[in-house]
Specification:
alpha/beta; six-stranded parallel β-sheet
Length: 248
């Protein structure tokens, strides 16, 4: 069964490298959302629904339903797909199920991106400068240097456009409204990866509540943060493999 990985913001598929190594499988495919390591065409609607439709189209290219895994906004895209087209997957896993809880409040950075003027200024600061400058920002967040440098090389104006469009499309109450159909995700086996030190996806209680509504099992990753897949890839791989082993 093919494993499909989808990353988030402000990343490229390099973020998955350590996890792919730890999985020790040959059937892992990494999909890059437009603007995040893949070209962003002028006509692409870089909204949360636009990315849902993009992912659905990509999944239709596989010969059979896949085991779909998403991180950050990639995790949001995964949940959006399984609420809408669950037949495209055998199973799903996401570290961002909490985005769909009605009480979720966007983190501070997201709220700046959602604010005209201030958002553009922040994106220019984040994605400007040299590759080295951008890499240092990522390294300060705990991302290993070689991965940070690879991601930084792909950052630029297209990613900036994608960030602003995506976050503004998802300004509340948009995500709360999207989450009204969260129970639909229970049509396929699901796993909520709950990294306890992740500050971006809401409280542990909120994430647990959303996972329960989605019919998902919760795997608690104690003392791991937002980038759990580089912080402790072996533990992440074990959580995923253990989940897949239950599917028969």
């Amino acid at each position: 069964m093919t494993v499909v990985l989808v990353h988030g913001n402000p990343e490229t598929d390099a973020i998955w490298g350590p996890l792919v190594d730890a999985l020790e499988r040959e059937d892992v495919v990494r999909l890059s959302p437009p603007g995040f390591g893949a070209p962003l065409d002028d006509g692409f609607p870089a909204t949360y629904l636009g990315y849902r439709d993009w992912l659905e189209e990509e999944l239709q290219g596989f010969n059979e339903p896949v085991d779909l895994v998403g991180h950050d906004w990639g995790g949001g895209h995964v949940v959006n797909v399984v609420m809408h087209r669950p037949e495209l997957v055998r199973s799903w896993a996401s570290d961002a199920v909490g985005l769909f809880d009605p009480e979720y409040i966007w983190h501070d950075l997201a709220q700046v991106w959602q604010t005209p003027g201030e958002g553009e200024q922040l994106v220019n600061t984040m994605l400007g400068g040299t590759v080295g400058d951008r890499a240092e920002q990522l390294i300060s967040l705990g991302i290993p240097r070689h991965i940070a440098t690879s991601i930084a090389a792909a950052q630029g104006p297209q990613m900036g456009r994608a960030i602003l469009s995506l976050y503004r499309s998802a300004r509340q109450p948009a995500m709360a409204e999207a989450g009204r159909t969260l129970e639909n995700a229970a049509a396929r086996p699901g796993l909520s990866l709950l990294a306890t030190e992740d500050p971006y996806i809401g409280s542990t209680e909120l994430r647990g509540r959303a996972a329960k509504r989605a019919g998902a099992r919760t795997e608690v990753l104690e003392e791991l943060g937002h980038w759990w897949m580089v912080q402790d890839p072996a533990r992440g791989a074990a959580a995923l493999t253990g989940f897949w082993d239950t599917l028969g």
